[in-house]
Amino acid sequence: MVRVVPERDPYFRIEDELVREGVGMFDMITPRGASELIVESPRHDDTLATIDPEQLEDVLWMYRDRLLDLKRDSQIRDILLSRRHKKPGVSPHHPYSRVTAIPIVFDEKRRELREAREYYQYKRRCLYCDLLRQEVAVRERVVRLTKSFACLVPYAARTPLEAWILPRRHGWSYEDALTAETAPELSTLLSQFFAALARDFGDPGYEIVLHTAPNVRSRILLGEWATIRDDYHWHIEIVTQPEAANRVGGIFVNEVPPEETALKLREAIGGDSGF
Ligand SMILES: [Zn+2]
Ligand SMILES: [Zn+2]
Fold this sequence. Notes:
- By secondary structure, the protein is of the alpha+beta class.
- The chain is 31% helix and 23% strand.
- The protein has a single domain, classed as HIT family, subunit A, CATH 3.30.428.
- One zinc ion binds next to strand 11.
């Protein structure tokens, strides 16, 4: 059973009228949006390492339902689905994912969208499809391949155990790509990954973020996101101990080579890695 509850004391509220205002050279926008918690399990001490894949699959469907529902509101431009495990200074709590819907596009997403679009304008190909083709051919940074998904350590990983999960088939939005076939595959892959992290890597804290297309219904400018269906490719990013990331002048410094991490994760997950 999975439940959704609005967050008490939210930053963003659906009831707010959207107002954009200039404050001299600055911009102000009302916090119209939504803050919700998706309660993943009735068991207080469940984690993604202990929850069964069927239960996790229900959570994945709930992600889809919340995205579809919130995207009907054309004032909402972007929705972040994220999940934290073991945040320093926060005592262990009931397992939940967080939904944050806002009237602007999140910074990280905006940068990703721009880079994907520029790559597409130049090459006429999806950046992520190209990345997948190359990584699957080279294999040294691949953690696991299933029929529909690839789990890999990104070439420029921000922290030692960063991993991404990408659908192997092009798709710009998670909510369109989740099907009766892909959902159980994804939940099994996530379960195996987090069980391995808990068992063989000392159960580190992590943050998961689902990167899916923003709300195209909120298009403001003519031609905005014109090629997004072809240039953007949804994916999941998992960053372990983000608070320990070492940054110098905005650049991430990570001394563990991604190939080494991928090999360790491959061994920890064990079984048939899909090759
Ligand atoms: Zn693609
Ligand atoms: Zn991303």
